[in-house]
Amino acid sequence: MQKVKKAIIPAAGLGTRFLPATKAMPKEMLPIVDKPTIQYIVDEAIASGIEDIIIVTGKGKRSIEDHFDNNLELETNLEEKGKLDLLEKVRHSSNVDIHYIRQKEPKGLGHAVWCARKFVGNEPFAVLLGDDIVQSDTPGLKQLMDQYEETHASVIGVQTVPDDETHRYGIIKPATKTGRRYAVDTFVEKPAKGTAPSNLAIMGRYVLTPEIFRFLDKQETGAGGEIQLTDAIQQLNQIQRVFAYDFEGKRYDVGEKLGFITTTIEFALQNEEIRKQLLDFMADKVTEQLGPK
Ligand code: UTP
Predict the structure, then answer these.
(1) In a domain, 291, yes or no
(2) Going by CA atoms, what residue is nearest to atom 22 of ligand 1?
């Protein structure tokens, strides 16, 4: 059996939910406290044992490449000033190679993954999306890779979402359940409100077999007029087993404004440097806005 060693991180979307911030700056570079969201994703891939990452970029995404490059001038400056903790933060892991490919037009997530087909070749591979940051004892992607080792089949990460949010996600219709793993009857992208077959939503972590490219090659459009990865997974499930895995850990939705802000607050509260002052500030704000308890 081939091991999962490569990961695709699609980052070529327009980020319209964060306009105007994302007009000239990639949404993936927006920071949660002091780290760009895409670095959390790269760190998860490295912690999961991925050896090669390809980031699918597009127009206006150069700063992603600069971020993962060495910056010798900055490093020398920090070294000379003895700022070794910061130096540590700007240096990147040498355990992984990061490659780039451009998606010439944002035709959808399925198309972005398809753009990396030659990098993947005939191996199983991972896909991680920057809209979800996962904090867990075992990295989210590693949990799926472990499932792949057991099943030799594609595994899609899912978690439960409330009824009023199912229309925003790819949703599965489960068939049978073994522990946290589901055999899947159907995958449906963004079902209309009230029609979702379950509350199990796809959360931006995938391990896929290369046969997925047979379906992505067709370039069929789906929900929102985009080439959807979920639609190709649904077709893949007709020719080989595709499992869903309800991975452990807390998921932070940073792909929309409110989730981005609450995640920033949660991560800031985990940062000892600012935790106390932030709590005092929030306590004052609550009293100011809602009156004393
Ligand atoms: P999203 O739909 O969340 O990202 O796609 P978006 O399109 O950038 O954001 P909004 O909806 O306009 O605010 C999920 C992931 O897929 C990538 C995005 O960069 C994001 O990481 N993506 C999406 C592509 O790489 N190419 C596409 O054509 C579409």
Answers:
(1) no
(2) 13
pTM strictly above 0.90? yes
**Ligand 1: which residues within 6 Å by Cβ?**
10-17, 27, 56, 103, 106-109, 111-112, 129-131, 255
User: Distances from the Cα of 143 to the Cαs of 33, 153, 154, 228, in angstroms?
Assistant: 26, 14, 13, 24
**Is there a domain that residue 282 lies in?**
no
What's the pLDDT tens digit per position in 97-112? 999 999 999 999 999 9
Domains held by the chain: number: 1
Residue 46: pLDDT band with limits 50, 70, 90 = very high
Determine the distance separating the centroid of ligand 1 and the alpha carbon of 248, expressed in angstroms.
24
Residues 194 and 95: beta-carbon distance below 8 Å: no
pLDDT of residue 25: 92
The residue segments making up the domain with residue 193 are 6-255
Ligand 1 centre from 12 Cα, in Å?
6
- Residue 264 domain-assigned (yes or no): no
Residue 9 CA, ligand 1 centroid: distance in Å: 11
One-letter amino acid of 38:
I
- The verdict on residue 168 lying in a domain is yes
| CATH code for the domain in which residue 189 is found | 3.90.550.10
